Amino acid sequence: MNEFIEKNRRLLKIFCITTRIIGWALILLPVILVIWSLLTGTSRFGDFLSWPLNIEKRLWHRQAFSLTDEQVDLLSLVIRFVLPGLLMLGLAQFIRYLSEKKYRPGWTLRCGEGILYLYAVLITGQVLWNYVLGPGMKANMYLVEGLRPEIYQVGLLTILASALLTAAKVVILIGLGQILARVMPVIEESKTLV
Amino acid sequence: MNEFIEKNRRLLHFYCVASRAIGWALLIVPGVAAVVHLLSGTLMEGRYRLYPMFIFVRVLILNTMFLGLVVLGVAQFIRYLFERQYQPSLILRNADKILYLYAFLMVVGFVLEFFFRATIPTGSSLLLYLFGWMLPTVAKVLILVGLGQILRRLLPVIEESKTLV
After folding, report:
1. In terms of residue numbers, what domain contains A90?
2. Chosen from B50, B59, B117, B124 to mutate, greatest number of chain A CBs within 10 A
3. What are the start-end ranges of the H helices in B41-125?
4. DSSP, res A143
5. Which residue of chain A is at minimal alpha-carbon distance from B126?
6. What digits encode the pLDDT tens for the residues A69-127?
7. How far is CA B54 from each of CA A109, A144, B61, B117, B136, rounded to the nearest angstrom?
8. What distance in Å separates residue B98's CA from the closest CA in chain A?
9. How many domains would you assign to chain B?
């Protein structure tokens, strides 16, 4: 393994730097958007997440949960940008931890398990909120002009498909959390061996 | 760690069984869906035939089948980590290649999606799409490549730790 790391040190370094830059960009972008929307008073940064017919979903959220557009957008921004950004920072730290002998794990990696579990909880919450409850699912599926809505009006089947995909993501995140918690001591142990 | 495993053996076993069930479901369901849609011919209707077809294939392959492979891989990795005598099977042995292929197809999917959005009036801004979707896609690709790299380096470390008494 050490031989491989020595050979690919440059590549790993470039990968870590790129990952950190994009990770920070993902974390900072929503913050900039929120500040920008507060300063300009437009309060519609959700257009940034533009899928066609987003308006239909917004109306449904408003009617069903009395939520404002901003609250809905904020949750989407956290799930689509901030949490993946944190994951990327954790990943870069993990690769450095794996490949550098003296590197100590940073905050993101130390809390990696918690971040992964939080991500799993939020994804589940978002899907229950957005899709499983009904009309939001349909609105999300009308992707393009010419695609008949009837194709996707399959009720229970659509809900099951959505639940299956979410369950897969949740299982992956929980599994990665479990692996991370167990693998860190193993790596630490392997570092102490000569 | 052994103490933890003994305490949580049931939970881990349940986790692995659930993961495998979900993973296999994700591998089988797209096949069934593809056959149903091909037989019914619903996707070949409408003004823009190619785009719905592309979305359909992308959802089946990227969002479903590869997700299923990753779920199965994670379940196998957990078993490999927790069971002394478990030997990694096909998916785990080739997991890094699967992750790289997943990342590559994600890039291809993004480029094709961009091409379609540039040519078909979808009603949303192309610039917003680029900024709003390119960054998360790049993030996903990097996460997949990173996981592949980690896996390649981690398996020998775990093997080594298993041989230590």
Report:
1. 2-192
2. B124
3. 50-58, 66-82, 90-93, 95-119
4. -
5. A50
6. 555 567 777 777 888 899 999 999 998 888 888 888 889 999 999 999 999 998 888 77
7. 37, 12, 10, 12, 20
8. 15
9. 1
